[in-house]
Amino acid sequence: MQHFEESIYNLIVETSTNLPGDVRRAVAKGRALEDRATRSGLALTTIAQNIGMAEHQVSPICQDTGMPTFIIHTPVGVNQIEMKKDIHSAIIRATKNGKLRPNSVDSLTGENSGDNLGAGTPVIHFEQWEEEGIDVRLILKGGGCENKNIQYSLPAELEGLGKAGRDLDGIRKCILHAVYQAQGQGCSAGFIGVGIGGDRTTGYELAKKQLFRKVEDVNTNADLGKLEDYIMENANKLGIGTMGFGGEVTLLGCKIGVMNRLPASFFVSVAYNCWAFRRQGILVHPATGDIKEWLYESGTGISVEGEQAPQPVAEPVGIAAADRAASGIVPEDATIPAAPAIVSGTGEAASEPAVPGHGAASEPTAAASTGSGGSREVRLSTPISEEDIRSLRVGDVVILSGEMHTGRDALHKYLMDHDTPVDLNGAVIYHCGPVMLKDDEGWHVKAAGPTTSIREEPYQGDIIKKFGIRAVIGKGGMGPKTLKALGEHGGVYLNAIGGAAQYYAECIKKVNAVDFMEFGIPEAMWHLQVEGFAAIVTMDAHGNSLHADVEKDSAAKLAQFREPVFK
């Protein structure tokens, strides 16, 4: 199969950069249900723009390209050893070309392999079948949503829902609780795969396999079909919303599978996937390795603006950038005005709304305007003063210009006991592990959305105080220790839109420098010059946290589903 490696490479590129048609329609349905003037509406519009940018630029939709997971069905006699070698070669090539972020990390040493190969990575499941072709399916599921996977052992007592027994109603409670516990940390609005039964390992495998089903399919098991419909209707009543901002749309898809179990065990396993639902598949000719058919509808030409009738599965329109011009984004939604008017440093209203990546040059002081409903948009330049920070409130949209610094798990742990290579007084830390490429001109940012911030909760408050940091950017919010530090020191947490890796990469104008490359590209400390970088204040210096408020409100709403439904 001399063309198999090339076919796998094309599959990886398509999966990473072009969201499938069924997923786009699900996003469009979500947008139709959400008021676009709200925080969640703003987030969905950002998501819509990012989908089009990724396709057009042939760059990763999200900077976290996850753990590449392949499920492959082969006819008897196909050499799986050679196939695996070709898959590894395609993975290395895709990583080198910036289609995948180097994500394979030694669990003991913390060393990043740099090429996405290592013990257990990528994940490849081979199964034989009696068909003639080779069926290859790939999912790229990022770490943020992977961390929100959850498994229940029934019977169990669930927060807000009470006792969940070993029956369909107990399963119902588990699934609702799984959506609740994810909040916005898994980049809602999300998709879930549910596995009922099996053991702890096969239950999770079954759950993840459900994510390979098409969004618009119908469960062949009538009882599970009814449960899927119930979950889709009622999970969206929890009010968690896109990014956990509160709103009407929390879940975009639910697929449930079942297998036999041991008498002593009853597991309900839930695989949570973010809105950037990246999975694709190909049918490969067993003799040549050429692609015979794409297994999921291409996203090219599918708008995320409104509902469209399902179209037949078609081969994606090429891999080259020239073939990406037919974006699925409606022109009027190509930019996101955060407020109706922007006040410049001179006090004059700007004629155009501020858009990430298209903002004015940095200004020496803060400038703000108030839109309808009391929402504000505030322009700030780094370094930021305590006075400017304490003037901010939850709900404000902040447009940043100047230098910011990325920092994730390895850096936060390091800084607890060491000094920083740059002055962070008044600085902005961005929880981000970008996709980077280097050429003769230096480093270039290929994708740069936020990572889930709650992982840094053990460190963040201490680091804010130690170094004088004024703003932390991430997604999903942080906990009480960080909130206390924001109040004591004068800081804010800014929620960027998870998964919007192209949207934010557009705001980064220059890579000033990098430190700690020994941590690997995602964990290094990148010093980035940005213009017009927009994010929403969700935790302020006055003890307010949108995340805590939404969680409290959704917990109360969860309790309304306590009574039995499936008897």
UniProtKB/TrEMBL annotation:
Residues 347-382 are annotated as: Disordered. Residues 6-280 form the Fe-S hydro-lyase tartrate dehydratase alpha-type catalytic domain. Keywords: 4Fe-4S, Iron, Iron-sulfur, Lyase, Metal-binding. Its cofactor is [4Fe-4S] cluster. It is an enzyme of class 4 (lyase). Catalyzes the reversible hydration of fumarate to (S)-malate. Homodimer. Belongs to the class-I fumarase family. PANTHER family: L(+)-TARTRATE DEHYDRATASE SUBUNIT BETA, L(+)-TARTRATE DEHYDRATASE SUBUNIT BETA-RELATED. This is Fumarate hydratase class I. It comes from Paenibacillus tritici. The lineage of its organism: Bacteria, Bacillati, Bacillota, Bacilli, Bacillales.
